[in-house]
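notes to self, project folder thing:

trying the whole complex as one job this time. last attempt i did each chain seperately and stitching them together was a nightmare. two parts in total, labels are on each line so i dont mix them up again. if this works i'll redo the older ones the same way
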Amino acid sequence: MAEHFPQPVQQQLYSLNLGPQHPSTHGVLRVLLTLDGEYILKADPIIGYGHRGHEKMGENRTYLQFMPNSSRMDYLSGLLYNHGFCLAVEKLAGIDPPERAKYIRVICAELNRISSHLLWFGTFLMDLGAFTPFLYCFDDRENILDILDRVSGSRLTYSYCRFGGVARDVDEVFIDQTRAFIKRLRSRWPDYHNLVTKNIIFIHRVRDVGIIDKDLARRFGVTGPNLRAAGVPFDMRKVEPYEVYDRFDFEIPTGTKGDALDRYRVRLEEMEQSCRIIEQALDQLPGGAYRQERVRLKLTPPRGDVYFAFESARGQTAYYLVSDGSPYPYRVHVRVPSFGNLHCLTEVLRETLVADTIAILGSIDIVVPEIDR
Amino acid sequence: MGYWKDIVLGGWSLIEGMKVTGRALFKPVVTVQYPRKRLEMSPAYRGHIEFKIFPETGTHGCIACGTCQRVCPSNVIKVQGVKAHARSGKIATHYVIDFTRCSLCGLCVESCPTQTLKFSTEFELAGDSRWDGVVDLVLRMEESRS
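result (full assembly):
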């Protein structure tokens, strides 16, 4: 692209640090850009500014004590991380939670996925310069936070799942609130589409921008909505159904090109699919115990290791746990989706404009504390 | 052709957007004027922990067993107790929690064998120093009763 412009007499390249404290980098991410005028020749994402040592902390805490840490790794979808960690430990220790607990977990996890996508929707558009949708999204997201606050007692760092169940039972009010929320969210879609999807400025900013195709996605290990936007229907909930996801009827939305507009569409459609899962789960919600008795607080799983992958809001997330038979895990490792999603930036950003950097960075939905765990 | 089409389409999407924004003018506001108006707290709200007072004894039921102390992931609880006489169980004399480092996971409440811990619904917490976050629950309970 750059060769279409007349070459300057003396070519001057310069570096620009985007971040680490820029609001549109969504956390402490630094992207070192080498620029030729407005064009990017090279982009290096530099991470590690917020390292907190969660994996190491896992080694000197019991399995249950690590639960609050798991929701702090990704602060936008804490419950999904709780859920995944819980399932990993249950697989390691051979615990089978009651049916009701499985359904409650799925409902809450999907609610959390919607809330994460709603926040992405708001911040992405704010990166592009639109402020109104941000407020609309936070209004909707507030409803989810109220529902989850009522059931788990916290608005952001839930730590709601327990080995063999959930911490608290849900009641009729929860079911009514959730149904009302889904109805409300569906009534908001026309607004969102009129305000954003049909907006010509938005389309011009995101169409054919930041194309992550199948090949690139495969090379960098891109997962989640970013991979699905490239046209690969890969979703851990369908590929390796965990929990009770195989009992629900839902689709995996895919894009065609893998540009920012496709990623936007896929996430919007995913919220609708999550709504469908929640509705079906609420209809099928069985009675009975919400938590298995006789699971000790100081759980001692047998020796061995387990790798458990699940679908968080940003893609395939996995826990790798090694147990030496003591109450403390020998090793905790987390495979985070944002790492692969972020690092394809080096390829994607080449020969694009600085303004597109913000659009691309926003559209791939990274959470930096998840990478710097 | 493209130029005029862009202007017409751009104008139309502007009008569509303004319609959505305009409708919001006539909807009730979603924000709350906080100090004057308050929202109802969630019954499950996890604030800092407090002693439950049992009506039959008129006091807490903490036996200073130290389960909460051991289960706490952040190591912020210190509990001490004494035996009234040789054969009796312990009764807590000091229950100190450093709330500034608490991660509000609620494991202490879940693990308590006598179920004497509960979450308070206080959320407007402020202090001048770090020591303001360090509370002795036994002292606090006695102050609230007197």
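what i see at first glance: The first helix of chain A runs from residue 54 to 59.
need to look closer tmrw
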